[in-house]
Amino acid sequence: MRLVVLGGGESGVGTAILGKKKGYDVFVSDFGKIKENYKEVLSINQIPWEEKQHTEDLILNADVVMKSPGIPDKSPIVKQLREKGISVISEIEFAAPFTDAITIGITGSNGKTTTTLLTYHLLKQGGLNVGLAGNIGKSFAWQVAENKHEAYVLELSSFQLDGIINYKPHIAVITNISPDHLDRYNYDYSLYIASKFRITMNQTENDFLIVDADDEAIGHWLKNNSTKAQIIPFSVAKELEFGGSIDKDNNININLNQDNFTMAINKLALEGKHNVKNAMAATTIAQLMKIRKETIRESLTNFQGAEHRLEKVLKIQNVQYINDSKATNVNATFFALDSMTTPTVWIVGGVDKGNDYDELMPLVREKVKGIVCLGVDNKKLVEKFENVVEVLVETTSMEEAVKIANKIAEKGDTVLLSPACASFDLFENYEDRGRQFKLAVQKL
């Protein structure tokens, strides 16, 4: 069997290693450059690779192709493969049949990283031998090749879900759905929603689907479509007999048929309404996985949040600097601005994925005193907000952006990097953007 891997990053190299171990004839092809450390791993494992090109003769003879999530379906090589009827799948689909471990799949437009990390923390503290993979951490396929975990917590993007055929998580979570990546879905929101719900398409009556009952897109889909899985809702807006909700004494209550969990919201390590939801989803998973309640409570109080997600960097002259570089869409930035309690200088901008900034308008009026646009093309942001805030400045360097924000900010203010956009115009990725922000703040 010939396995061709498109993309020589973490998921690609991991898939190649697992494929090789399972006796496939493996070839890795990357249209860009492959990082040195990955080239070394491929060479050590005697796996042939190419970079900066796709040689058709070496690719179109595949039996199966694993495509990295970053490669769009529109790319010429993917179109050719599909025309030839060659199966193009994601890493998750390829690796899942090679493990007996329980998998927990978490998707959503926002909150999925925090929910994934929190779930992993709860299960690990509860003594389970658990792996963390998907969109985060080490490649799932690589771990399947090397480790024997009893369970995996997988953060799954819509792109990874587009590439599944038979994969099913035992427990699936959809944290929320808001317009994101619409450029990859022909600007059709319903296609993006359908993509998220692929997470439940193969689930059976013995599996679980945990969903946000306050989310309009989720509610609409469930009304018009069905899943065999047992649905467990959570809500911060209404009290639920079954599932997760908040009672009048401000406790989280999670009620799963005779199995009830309660904890005061103010004991949670993570702040903000959206994090109450993330905690409900993760706690529901921990209960289904039979983790002791005492352990769950303890773990929810000592959890450290995700890097680049509302991460407090430093306080300088009583101005708090916050790195929310992972906010690559409007909805994520909405959460960030919503959780600000002081006047805010907002650093925003990058590659716009068809963003509609209207929903941020009330929050910007209420909380934002100055805007620093950090991007190659800031036209849309400038037109939208120049008459709404006192100061709006454009820049194309992080160091300059932080210096300007520092000048605008006064004692008691917050400087928030929450770009609402992808980072590829000026940075390698959102991590690079967040690290540059932290360095620039440290230099002040």
Automatic annotation (TrEMBL):
Provide the family line: Belongs to the MurCDEF family.
Query: Any idea what this protein is called?
Result: UDP-N-acetylmuramoylalanine--D-glutamate ligase
Q: Where in the cell is it found?
A: Cytoplasm
Quickly give the catalysed reaction.
UDP-N-acetyl-alpha-D-muramoyl-L-alanine + D-glutamate + ATP = UDP-N-acetyl-alpha-D-muramoyl-L-alanyl-D-glutamate + ADP + phosphate + H(+)
Which pathway does it serve?
Cell wall biogenesis; peptidoglycan biosynthesis
Report the domain of life of the source organism. Answer: Bacteria
Residues annotated as domain Mur ligase central: 106-285
Q: What are its GO biological-process terms?
A: cell division; cell wall organization; peptidoglycan biosynthetic process; regulation of cell shape
What would be one Gene Ontology cellular-component term for the protein?
cytoplasm
Instruction: Give every Mur ligase C-terminal domain span.
Output: 308-421
- Provide the E.C. number(s) assigned to this enzyme: 6.3.2.9
For this UniProt record, the keywords arranged alphabetically read as follows: ATP-binding, Cell cycle, Cell division, Cell shape, Cell wall biogenesis/degradation, Cytoplasm, Ligase, Nucleotide-binding, Peptidoglycan synthesis
Q: Which residues form a coiled coil?
A: none
Q: What does this protein do?
A: Cell wall formation. Catalyzes the addition of glutamate to the nucleotide precursor UDP-N-acetylmuramoyl-L-alanine (UMA).
GO terms of molecular function: ATP binding; UDP-N-acetylmuramoylalanine-D-glutamate ligase activity
Q: What is the predominant subcellular site recorded for this chain?
A: cytoplasm
Specify which residues bind ATP according to the UniProt entry for this protein: G108, S109, N110, G111, K112, T113, T114
